[in-house]
Every structure is written in structure tokens, then in C-alpha cells.
Amino acid sequence: MVHRVSPDRPDDHRPHEPAGAVTEFTSPSNGHFDGIVAGPDGALWFTEHFSNQIGRVTTAGVFKEYPIPTANSSPNRITVGSDGNLWFTESSASKIGRLTPAGVFTEFPLPTANSYPWGIVAGPDGNLWFTEQSGNNVGRVSTTGTITEFPIPTAGCFPIGIVAGADGNLWFAEFLGSKIGRATPAGVITELPLPSTGGEPADVTLGPGGDLWFVEEGSFSSVSRMTAAGVFTAYVTPTPASGINQIAVGGDGNLWFTEAQAHKIGRLVPP
């Protein structure tokens, strides 16, 4: 199910809805959804992890689904590339997928087998960058499908979320390494250990002022900030062991995050 928050906008051509109203649209397949992104066509595009499809829903709630050519590929995160296409990770298939807004698929196998790609983001160099959980790499794929992998120095670090930073580098969360990693567009990787032991950072985003914000799913169940100078600050959530796992910046400039085990959405006002 996709949730839409509808602000009270004068240019909205849907029937009038009060500010803060939530409308839910049920997809035809009732799939398990993971990633979602605003597409270049004005629709929302999302991954259907178990039904092996990429879905599209208009702001009016009209769905269309596109079956991925590789069966049981477990599509995960999705983003828009510099070429205007949708790019996504196929975790179980160890592939990177590309889908045009017209519905044409191309799949690119990764050099490392069973690498389980997870996060993906458009980089400042025009390429797509992604993490490989089991492959222990950060990967780069050009819009024509040329793939390069860069090994992460810490073995078994289980990289998950990745984001383009304000400094022109790629930053990623090392879940089992309890580190935040940085990859230059040339593929040079640097790692910064977290102050906390067993912090298990799961997702990372670019926040107000260019700082990096990430969630620590492990020992503290916190939302944390890292400045450009590498200074860490952790903000512990009120609910312990809440299963905090994804984070994004809202239109209000605050940090919003998911608490999977607590069944809550959290908000942090940056200091």
C-alpha cells in the first residue's frame, strides 16, 4: 500500500482535502513495497520486493506494474538517474536494473556473485552508486551499464544506505562495521568509526546545512549527525529497540525516520 500525504494546495486539481489528510491506494498485486522515488514523469515509482515488479502510481492513484525480467530478483531501493530513467537494485539476482518511463527494462549483472546490492543513489558524476551487502563493495554503474566495484577496507561490514554528500563524495552506512564510509567519485574509500559500540547504522541522508544524518538501529536506537569535520552527535529515540531503519529530510526541514518494530514514524528537529 502506498501512502500519500496531501497538503492543502490551491493548485491541486483533486477534490479538496484538508491539510494533513492521508489517502491510501491499494496496488493491484498487494505487493511488499520497499523503495519509492518521485519519477521524471510526475508519478511515483516503487519496488515490489516479493512480487518482483516495479510499480508506478500517479498522484491520482492510478497504478501500473512492470514485471522484472529476472524471476525472484528481490528489487529493493530505487532512484532516478541522470539519464531520466529509473534505476534499482535487484538484491537476490545480484543485478542493477534500469527501467525507462515507457516501461523498457535492462538488467546489468554485477561482477561479484551473490553480492546482494541494496542502496542506490545518483552520484554527482552522473553515474549511479550502490552498496553490496554481501559483496562488501561500493559499486558504480554508468548510465550505459559499465560497472566498477570498490572493495570496502573493513571485511563483513554489510553496507546498506548510501547518499550523495554536499562535498561531492558518496557516503554510506556500514551496518555491521559500525562505521560511516566515504567514497570519492574515483572510488577511494575512507571509513569513520562511530563513537558508539554496536551502533549498526542502517540508512544515511543529507541534512540541513550539509551535515550527514543517519539512524543507528543497534545499541542506542538513535538518530545521529556527522558534521563535515567528522564530529558525531547522537540523539536517542524515546522508544528503546524501536527498529529504526530509514531516514529522510521532510519539506519542513526536519528529519523523519521509520521505527519498524515500534510501528511509529519519528521526527527530529535539528538543533
Question: Would you kindly provide a written description of the structure presented here, covering whatever features stand out?
Answer:
The protein contains no helices and 25 strands. The chain is an all-beta fold and 271 residues long. The protein has a domain at 73-193: Methylamine Dehydrogenase, Chain H. The protein is globular. 40% of the residues are buried. Mean pLDDT is 89; it is low at 1-14.
CATH superfamily of one domain: YVTN repeat-like/Quinoprotein amine dehydrogenase
CATH class of one domain: Mainly Beta
Helical proportion?
under 10%
* Percent strand: over 45%
Main sheet makeup: 4 strands, antiparallel
Order of helices and strands: EEEEEEEEEEEEEEEEEEEEEEEEE
How many beta-strand segments? 25
Low-confidence stretches are 1-14
Strand order, sheet with most strands: 3-4-5-6
Cα radius of gyration in angstroms: 18 Å
CATH architecture of one domain: 7 Propeller
Q: And the CATH topology of one domain?
A: Methylamine Dehydrogenase, Chain H
| Shape category | globular
Average per-residue pLDDT, rounded, comes to 89
Distance between the termini: 34 Å
> Treating each run of at least 4 consecutive H or I residues as one helix, how many helices?
0
Helix/strand/pairing class, anyone? Answer: mainly beta
Offer a few descriptive terms:
271 residues, mainly beta, four-stranded antiparallel β-sheet, 0% helix, disordered N terminus
Topology:
Elements: E1 2-6, E2 21-25, E3 33-38, E4 44-48, E5 53-57, E6 63-67, E7 75-80, E8 86-90, E9 95-99, E10 105-109, E11 117-122, E12 128-132, E13 137-141, E14 147-151, E15 159-164, E16 170-174, E17 179-183, E18 189-193, E19 201-206, E20 212-216, E21 222-226, E22 232-236, E23 244-249, E24 255-259, E25 264-268
